[in-house]
TrEMBL record:
One of its GO terms (molecular function) is ATP binding. Pfam families: ABC_tran. Keywords: ATP-binding, Nucleotide-binding, Transport. The keyword Nucleotide-binding applies. This is ABC transporter ATP-binding protein. Residues 5-230 form the ABC transporter domain. It comes from the Bacteria. It comes from Actinomadura monticuli. Gene3D superfamilies: P-loop containing nucleotide triphosphate hydrolases.
Length: 291
């Protein structure tokens, strides 16, 4: 399967501070990818590098088999909705669609107008008068009507209320179903990713802690509870652990079944999986374990 985004040892430094360092990643095409991690993990820096808004200090990144923002053809392949879902407050919705048509060679005007109609928005309304949810939907419309091969969204629903978030994500899933595109969606709201994404990337301290198909990750991660012990077999990769004087609890990754009768083996949900990777430093390198 082809990759829509490949990074190798990718890093970005601002002065003496590294916002991203040693990031290696390979995202397959045709997926809705959830990019999650704590604040300061490097998510926005990674996405800004992917769309060519900034240049790397170290390493390399390729998007759709080309250098980000390397020319008009490359720019046309990638859509981007930034964190604050930017729109021009003094322009009407109709003005935004006209601007999109002038700037994007693949622009689908019929798609843009039909989506605005389905949302119940008036072309004459100024963007500055729209609600946060409506502005987000307008920004998403501009990104989709560009007809990109890859649509990148940087926490577009972070400031929205639950209803507006649900409507935005529903619109996104409908667009993916109707039009062939890959999506990378950054969010710190794991419940939103659980509803929309089929591929997960967890980024912590600018490094990829785990990446893979959501169903496969959930099938191969387990919570073990039982009598206190400090070590596990080598085929059970420890993600996180906690101990009392008498009991141990581990979140592990294992490709095979766990038969040890001393353990109570439980399933793990996506939020618990993400939190396990975010909350601790692994005893053995996670990236090596997932390759």
């Amino acid at each position: 399967m082809n990759a829509v985004l490949q990074a190798e040892g990718l890093g970005k430094r601002y002065g003496k501070r590294w916002a991203l360092t040693g990031c290696t990643l390979d995202i397959p095409e045709g997926r809705i990818v959830g990019l999650v991690g704590p604040n300061g993990a490097g998510k926005t820096t990674l996405l800004n590098l992917a769309v060519g808004q900034i240049r790397p200090t170290a390493g390399s990144i390729r998007v759709l088999d080309g250098a980000p923002a390397s020319g008009p053809e490359q720019l046309a392949k990638v859509g981007y909705v930034a964190q604050d879902t930017p729109t021009y407050s003094s322009l009407s919705i109709g003005d935004h669609l006209k601007l999109g048509a002038r700037l994007n060679p693949r622009w689908d005007d019929a798609l843009a107008h039909e989506r605005i109609r389905r949302l119940g928005l008036d072309l004459g309304h100024k963007a500055g008068k729209l609600s946060g949810g409506q502005r987000a939907q307008l920004a998403l419309t501009l990104g989709i009507a560009k007809r990109p091969e890859l649509l990148i969204l940087d926490e577009p629903v972070a400031a929205l209320d639950p209803l507006a978030r649900r409507e935005f994500l529903q619109g996104l899933m409908e667009a993916v179903a109707e039009h062939s595109m890959s999506v990378v969606l950054s969010s710190h709201l794991v419940s939103d990713l659980e509803r929309t994404c089929d591929y997960l990337v967890v980024l912590v301290d600018s490094r990829v802690r785990v990446a893979g198909d959501v169903d496969e990750l959930l099938a191969t991660h387990h919570r073990l509870s039982g009598p206190r012990r400090d070590t596990l077999p080598e085929d059970q990769h420890v993600v996180s652990e906690s101990h009392t004087d008498r009991q141990s609890t581990f979140v592990v990754r294992s490709d095979g079944p766990i038969h040890d009768p001393a353990w109570t083996v439980g399933q793990i949900g996506l939020e618990d999986l993400v939190l396990a990777y975010m909350s601790t430093t692994p005893r053995r390198p996670t990236l090596e374990a997932i390759r």
